[in-house]
Predict the structure.
Amino acid sequence: MAKTSFFDAINANKRNSVILMAAMFLVFMAMISAISYVFDIGICGPVLGFMALLVYAVAVFHSGDKIILSMTGAKEAGKKEYPFLYNVVEGLALASQIPMPKLYIIQDESPNAFATGRDPKHASVAVTTGLLKMMKREELEGVLAHEISHVANYDIRFSMIAVVFVGAIALLGDFVWRMLFYGGGGRKRDGGGGALVIVALVFVILAPVFAQLVRFAISRQREYLADANGARLTRYPAGLASALEKIKSANIPTKAANDTTASLFFSNPFPHKMGFLAATHPPIDDRIQKLRSM
């Protein structure tokens, strides 16, 4: 099998992630346009929708990380209690030329971790107690390098944007249903253009599902990118691959995770679930194979 360079993997995943994010934005604007047509709002609909999205994004950016940490039950880690953890993260942050992120501990036997925040200056890294107990030094360094890569590559901001889009589209879908069934119908229901209204409504119904699928695809691409960059930081891909193999073997669900936060974690927090929820992460065997080929 041909060796894959660190930088080839990083560049390919950055390109794919930009394409996926553009698709999310197009879905949002198309949904706004469909709603505007159904309710005969005109050009004001897309303009107001775009402005509302910006306001919503700013609000999420400034409080989203605190909400996520609270949802997972993360508690700030003391330097005296976890000196090794601090030393490893501090060294990786220095190597990545970013400020030292805040560290948090989650009381959970599942080996997992995640990074959150709006930029490297306002970033946090959380690890479970299960991860600290299960991993050897080089394996823990690999996982933490993966999370530091999320911070350094602005993946944490990227993930926030994805959450903003999915949340906004879901709110729009709920708004449309309430308007249709509680506030009266849309335009042209008694006149011409009924077929177009039906098409627009079908799109409004399906858009939140499609947006969630795009979000999952973005998450998968960013995991590949963080694996590649994390391996570059440690110069030891085998350490990260070994950590993934241990996590696969343990097969322990992460109780601190939920459907909203699942895509943020290092590995799929719901290993026993199949289908839609399993799409938050790339197949673990595929990640291991890519790392072993570097």
Summary: The chain has one domain: 6-292.
